[in-house]
Amino acid sequence: MRTLFALAFILALTSCSGVGRAPVEEKSAGSILTGKDTQGINLLELGETSNSETGLPINALLWRASLDIASSIPLDDIDTFGGTIVTEWYQLDENNEERIKLAIFVLDRELRSDGIRVVVYVQKRDGSDWRDEGTDSEMGLRLEELILTRAREIRAGTVSETN
Asked: Contact 55/63 with Cβ under 8 angstroms?
C-alpha cells in the first residue's frame, strides 16, 4: 500500500510540471545612461565566432567627431562599445570660478541629430571647495550641433576622397 501511494504521488508530481506555464520571455537590461539595450557578451557563446554583427555598435562618424570636439579637454573615461566619452573637470578660463565636465553619448548607428547627446555638468568654486550647480543644457545643445557638423564634415571628406 505504501509503495502504491508513493508511486501515485511521484506520478502526480511529474505530470503537473508543464501545466499552465507560460514561456518566460528574456528581457535584456538597458543602459541607465543611454537607454539603449546593452551589447554584452553571452558567456556561453564566448568561444564561438559569429558574423552577425561586425564593427562598432555606434556610428563611427559621430564617435570620431565627438573625440575631435572633446579632445581639447582631458579625457577621463572612453567606452567605444558603449558609445560614451567622459572628460575630466575643466576650467574654461584660468581666472574663472566655474568648471565643466562633459559626458558625451553616441546613441545610434545612424548619423542623425538624435544620435548624439551631450550633458555638461557645472561646478562653481565655494571658497576652496567646488559646489555642484547642475547641468548646462544650452551648452550641451551647442556641443551636440558642433559634433553633428564635424561628423558631416568627416563624411563629406571621405566621400570626396573616394570619388
From this structure: no
| pTM more than 0.85 | no
Q: Which residues contact 124 (CB under 8 A, 6 or more apart)?
A: 97, 98, 130, 131, 133
Q: What is the secondary structure of the chain as a DSSP string?
A: -HHHHHHHHHHHHHHTTTTTPPPPPP-PPBPTTT-SBP----GGGTT----SS-S-SS-HHHHHHHHHHHTTS-EEEEETTTTEEEEPPEESSTT-SEEEEEEEEE--SS--GGGEEEEEEEEEEETTEEEEEEE-HHHHHHHHHHHHHHHHHHHHHHHHHH-
For the domain bounded by 60-162, which CATH number is listed? 3.30.530
Q: How confident is the model over 97-140, as pLDDT tens digits?
A: 899 999 999 998 888 888 999 999 999 998 889 999 999 999 99
Question: pLDDT of 2-45, one tens digit each?
Answer: 777 777 777 666 665 555 555 555 555 555 555 555 555 555 55
